[in-house]
Amino acid sequence: MSVHGSPHRSTPGLGRFRAGHGPAQVKDVMGHVAIAVVADASFADIVAALRRFKVGAVAVVDGERRVLGVVSEDDLLLREIDGVRQDGVAPDGDRREEERRKMIGATAGEIMTSPAIVVTRETPVREAARLMHEHRIKQLPVINPDNGRIVGTVHQSDLLKVLDVRQDEGTPAGEVK
Predict the structure, then answer these.
(1) 68, 69, 136, 171: which has the fewest Cβ within 10 Å?
(2) Strands 139-143 vs 150-155: parallel, antiparallel or unpaired
C-alpha cells in the first residue's frame, strides 16, 4: 500500500476551497462511504458491487478493513481483450505477467492491483489530483493512517468541487464569454 499525504507539486486552481484555513484537503471533499470487497470475493461479486453502487472500482480489504488493493473495471475487462491492446503495443514482461494474472484470476485477491495507491483525510487535494493523473485512476481509497483502515473514497468529481472560478472575468463556471 502506498500512502500519500504530503504535497509535491503545485496544481493551479486546486487548493483555495477553505478560505482562511489553508489548502483544501481530501477530508473537505471525500465521500465517507467506501465500497469494498473482501479478498475472496468472486469475479461475479465484484461486478455486482460495481453495478449496484455505480462505481468504477472497489477497494479490496482484509478482515480488519485494511486496504490490500483495488479492482477496477479496467482490471475486469482484461478477460475480454485476450492479450490484444488498443494501442497495438505489447506490454513489457512484468506488465504482461500482471495482466495475465488478472485475466485468469477468480477472486478479488487474484485480480486486484496491489499495492493500492491510497490517501489520508489530510492529504492535500492537489496531491490527490496529481496521483490520479499520474497513475491514470479515477478514485482513491482514503485510509486512517493510524490503523490503515478504509474510511472513505475520493473521486475525480469530488476534486472538481474545489476548482477555482476565475473571478476576475466575472463568468460563472460553464459559461463562455
Answers:
(1) 136
(2) antiparallel
